[in-house]
Amino acid sequence: MTCYSLDGLTPVVDPTAYVHPSAVLIGDVIIGPGCYVGPLASLRGDFGRIILEEGANIQDTCVMHGFPDSDTVVERNGHIGHGAVLHGCRIGADVLVGMNAVVMDGSQIGARSFVSAAAFVKAGFSCPEQSLVMGAPASIKRSLSDEEVAWKQAGTREYQMLAQRCLQNMVACEPLAEVEAGRQRIADRGLRPKGSGPQ
């Protein structure tokens, strides 16, 4: 990872978390146990504090940032999809934030809620637990079923396993010049179940 201390504050990464080498961590960033931080993610603790709690994932090209003295928090088992932007907000435990969603300052997303892909959550928004939040600007559409939450939880467990796979098995390499005969798929190796939760 690309990691910078700023004004005497150095990012903290739990040894059981995986942070991709292309991700950038600056200053007051705290990454908890079992977290996954994807390629090109930017976690900028240069004004406020950035926190990923245990088991959370923040995927490729996501941004976490906030105003001075703010906390931008993804609580335990939070699941942040590709390209999402979180700014000065609190994402509750077991929440799914969809791809390219934006969640603004002072917003609080209740536990086990979904923020849909491409949603724009205005500053100061809040929702109760287990809500479906959609639109631009976003609003609460309905409550989520326990089955929908279980689907999300399955996807989050995959990212927790992916963090461990990456810590153990990912190595830099040169690409092959051609496809090998009988090339296997990841699923053929029994590393992840087919048709599971959100990616």
TrEMBL record:
<keyword id="KW-0378">Hydrolase</keyword>
<dbReference type="InterPro" id="IPR050484">
    <property type="entry name" value="Transf_Hexapept/Carb_Anhydrase"/>
</dbReference>
<dbReference type="Pfam" id="PF00132">
    <property type="entry name" value="Hexapep"/>
</dbReference>
<dbReference type="InterPro" id="IPR011974">
    <property type="entry name" value="PaaY"/>
</dbReference>
<dbReference type="InterPro" id="IPR001451">
    <property type="entry name" value="Hexapep"/>
</dbReference>
<dbReference type="InterPro" id="IPR011004">
    <property type="entry name" value="Trimer_LpxA-like_sf"/>
</dbReference>
<protein>
    <submittedName>
        <fullName>Phenylacetic acid degradation protein PaaY</fullName>
        <ecNumber>3.1.2.-</ecNumber>
    </submittedName>
</protein>
<dbReference type="GO" id="GO:0016787">
    <property type="term" value="F:hydrolase activity"/>
</dbReference>
